């Protein structure tokens, strides 16, 4: 066994000891509608509840899957209904599923003008919790191409317009384009201080972290925080907290992606929201499927990084999530 593997096992043991108590949590960003959950969604809902998850947000990325998201929301609510009405059910649970609708920048070539029209129609007809995930992504050379990036910018601005029109928070997906996204947000009429919003799975540097928070966004922290080698992320989160306090953070799983390091195994698990070659999750071959029940690992690692107790951090993260999403969900006692 290598020194690195030994260290991971030791860390896992320590974190497990710290997770003996359950705290109410909100998973602010999931793709729980993905087909990878179809075979065991009921069990995953029950396990998530047992780990403290009380709300989870299903976040959109392609128009063609919006209906599937609502089907999954009904499924989660039905699972809850069955559990709560079952006589003396030891697995009784209650998780509320919510919807955010958006056109993801990574799939920009698959989006059409009609997708924007249909998105706004669904916003009017069904009023989701938020608009997302939306933003800019230049992760590949192809996405940096001028025409492709220009289309990303146009779709980003249009979806920000939709959020303003309908007074909804946005969930940002920004990857390797933080400066460009900040430039747009600073001049757009979207006001995160008023409408809320989350910089989902934040991956920028210290100054960028503080810039998003200054604009009114909460920083979404994923299982990446559990990686001891994620020094840049650790510094960015710490810098934002030093300047703005723990009030600037929310946590998320981004499942089935972003698996906490202590939940990964060497066997490998192909994580893809869809089995297509152009899916952003196709590169995650070495990670196990992430699940909502893994969210406490994010809480624990964040607690350790910030030197804040689990109890204090969990309660503040709950309030931060409500502030970011402009809801008033009572903290369970």
Polypeptide structure, described:
It is a single chain. The chain is 45% helix and 13% strand. An eight-stranded parallel sheet has the order 1-2-3-4-5-6-7-8. α3 (66-85) links the parallel β2 (53-59) and β3. It is an alpha/beta fold and 333 residues long. It has helices spanning 3-18, 41-50, 66-85, 113-126, 141-144, 146-166, 178-187, 192-195, 206-214, 231-244, 295-306, 310-325, and strands spanning 25-30, 53-59, 96-101, 130-137, 170-175, 198-199, 218-221, 249-251. α4 (113-126) packs parallel to α6. The longest helix is centred in the middle third of the chain and has 21 residues, at 146-166.
Span between termini: 43 Å
Strand order of the largest sheet: 1-2-3-4-5-6-7-8
Q: Which whole number gives the mean pLDDT?
A: 89
Count of alpha/pi helices: 12
Our Rg estimate from Cα atoms comes to 19 Å
Which spans of ≥5 residues are poorly predicted at pLDDT below 50?
A: 5-17, 267-287
Helical proportion, percent range: 40-55%
Overall SS class: alpha/beta
Element-by-element helix/strand order: HEHEHEHEHHEHHEHEHEHH
The major beta sheet can be summarized as: 8 strands, parallel
Q: How does the overall form come out from the CA principal axes?
A: globular
Number of strand segments: 8
Give the strand content.
5-15%
